[in-house]
Structure formats: C-alpha cells, structure tokens
Write a structure and sequence with these properties.
Alpha-Beta Plaits; single chain; Ribosomal Protein S5, domain 2; alpha+beta; globular; binds adenosine-5'-diphosphate; 307 residues; 7-stranded mixed sheet
C-alpha cells in the first residue's frame, strides 16, 4: 500500500492576452513540489515558504479537503509543500500547488480520475487565493502545454505547442497585495464594447490557429488584448515601457501574465531572447524596479516524482 506520493507541477501563464479565464500555458520557469502522506486523521500543512498553513486558506489544503470529502477518505493527510513558483506574481503559484496536490491525491488513493476531473478538483484550490474558482492556470499545470478551458460542463482541450515557441518573463520585485488576483479581477469592466469583443475574439481565435499550425509568430502576433490589459496595466509600474521595449527588441507580442505583475513576451528560439529580457529589465528599471527575467518554453504537466 502506497502511503506517500510526491508530485511536481509547473508554473503557468493565464489568459495569453485575449483569452481571459480561457487560455493557459504551462511554462518551465518554476516548479512546486507537493508530498502527500497518509496519516491517522486531519489535514496538516508543512512548509518553509511564506504561504498560509491553515488548510482552509491554502490551495493545496482546499484540494485535499474536497477530495477527501468526495471520495469518503477516512485517512488524514499531511501536505508538504516546497514552493518553487513565487506566490502572487501571476505565474500560477497557487495553481501549481493545487495541481500537484490533485494529481498526488489521485495517485495516493488510486482513483484513476480523468484529466477533466483532476482539473476540476485542482480548481477548488483557487478559491483560497482568488476568491473564485477559475481553471486556466490549474488546467495548464495539470495537463502541461497550451490549454483551452470550456466550462458548463468543464472540458479542457489541450494542443501541442510549436517546438520553437519561447517566452521571456519578467517578474518585478514589487510588493503585491495579499489577495492580488481578487483585487485585479475587481478592476475589469463588467460590460465591454462589441468592437472590442470582436477584436479579442479574432486574436484569441488566431492564437488557437497558431498552436494548431505550430506557428509561433502567429501566436505571438495575436497576443493582443483590448479589454483586460488596458484595465489592469496601471497596477504594474512601468508596464507600457516594458512592453514597448520588448517589442522593439523583437518580441512578437507582450502581455500581463495572468493577473500580473509579471509581464510575458512571446517569441521563438531563433530570436535574441536575452536581448528581449534585458529590454524588459530596462523597462522596469525606468521606474526603479528590479526584476528577475527568465527565458522559458512550454512545460509538461504535473508529474509523479519517483524518488
Ligand atoms: P499566483 O498567480 O501566484 O497564484 P495569486 O494572488 O492568485 O497569485 O495567489 C497567491 C495568493 O494565494 C497568496 O496570497 C498566497 O498566500 C495564497 N496561497 C494560498 N495557498 C497557496 C499555495 N499553496 N501556493 C501559493 N500561494 C498560495
């Protein structure tokens, strides 16, 4: 009988511009590791990282709570979390822990859940961080690569990425509000103009076509959002400069990663990616902000760590 399972899950970027709450892409920038161990009773969280340890406020804790209830599991569970994904920067940190936990729980109790079920359980975790359930980050983190999330009923469609697709991510060293995703969801307009929705629809469709055709340039050129980005960019000091610098350095498209404040530029492997990263750093520097830049590519989804 297995009593302990470790799963590693990747960081992810949500939205990809026009695909708000719909598109997600797992990226190999950072990974979370979650180890679930069967205990006699209760749910406990062990971590050295600066995240809530009350299971009700931790994405991994909420996933375990829901899965325990759903499958009438009597055991207790100890959740050990080793964060690699920085929390609160739009890199799918809360989702990474939730995705790793759902996949680990499935393995620990041999539930053999489908991908859609795993995403659904991982999605419960997002309530702890974002206040609402949304599946874009968890779907990417569970399945890997590019995903499209359809809801009612939940159905996640995954498409292989072009092998030359690369991203440059700039993670600014700024203080983020505790409930950042909740705050940044609050600034999005409830009503949108038809012309704007048409533009976003055309760009979102082109992103999907870009993944289908394995065309990184089409994907990157279509990373344009006229609805959410204009409403959120004021929350990221220097955003416009970071974006313009990256475009001038050769990026195809630039947008906010998830709810921010990280900024992500889309490009391809034959381009000068270091130049794009340094252009983005200079953009943040213009506001006296340091940032970490990472060149990354699409990642595989959550995987069981054998040792
Ligand atoms: P991100 O895009 O990094 O997920 P969010 O703001 O959506 O950013 O989530 C980060 C918030 O979620 C932080 O306030 C953090 O304390 C909380 N949180 C709860 N559980 C976790 C977890 N297991 N990993 C990371 N953040 C968590």
């Amino acid at each position: 009988m297995v009593s302990k399972i470790t799963v590693k899950a990747p960081s992810s970027t949500a939205n990809l511009g026009p695909g708000f709450d719909t598109f997600g892409l797992a990226i190999d920038a950072f990974y979370d590791k979650v180890t679930l161990t069967k205990t006699k009773k209760g749910i406990s969280i062990i971590t050295d990282d600066n995240i809530p340890t009350n299971p009700e406020n931790n994405t991994a804790g909420l996933v375990v709570k829901n899965m325990k209830k759903k499958f009438k599991i009597k055991n207790g569970i100890e959740i050990q979390i080793k964060k690699g994904i920085p929390a609160g920067f739009g890199m799918g940190s809360s989702a990474g822990s939730a995705a790793a936990t759902a996949v680990a729980f499935d393995k620990l109790f041999n539930l053999k859940l489908s991908s859609n079920q795993l995403v659904e359980f991982a999605g419960f975790g997002e309530k702890a961080s974002a206040g609402t359930i949304h599946y874009d980050n968890v779907a990417a983190s569970v399945l890997g690569g590019f995903v499209i999330v359809k809801t009612n009923p939940l159905n996640v469609i995954s498409i292989n990425s072009p092998t030359d697709l690369r991203m440059c991510v700039a993670v600014p060293k700024i203080d983020v509000p505790k409930k950042k995703t909740k705050v940044s969801r609050g600034v999005i307009p409830e009503k949108v103009k038809l012309v704007d929705s048409v533009q976003n629809l055309a760009n979102a469709s082109s992103i999907v076509a870009g993944f289908m055709k394995k065309d990184s340039e089409l994907i990157g050129n279509s990373i344009q959002d006229v609805i959410v980005e204009p409403a959120r960019q004021h929350m990221i000091p220097g955003y416009e400069k970071v974006k313009q610098n990256a475009l001038k350095a050769g990026a195809f498209g630039v947008t906010i990663s998830g709810a921010g404040p990280s900024v992500i530029a889309f490009s391809k492997s034959s381009f000068d990616l270091k130049k794009i990263c340094s252009a983005m750093s200079k953009g943040f520097k213009s506001k006296n902000i340091d940032c970490q830049t990472i060149i990354c590519k699409p990642s595989k989804g959550a995987i069981h760590q054998k040792k």
